[in-house]
Amino acid sequence: MVKEWGVQAIAAFADPAFAGGGAYGALRFGERTRAAVTLNPGVQDGEFAFRGELLGHLLVNGRSARHPQLYALGGVAGEAGPATRGWLVLGAGLEARPGGRSGWAVELGVGGGVRISAGFRWRRFPPTWASPQ
Question: Environment class of residue 29 by beta-carbon count within 10 Å: exposed (0-12), middle (13-18) or buried (19+)?
Answer without folding.
Answer: exposed
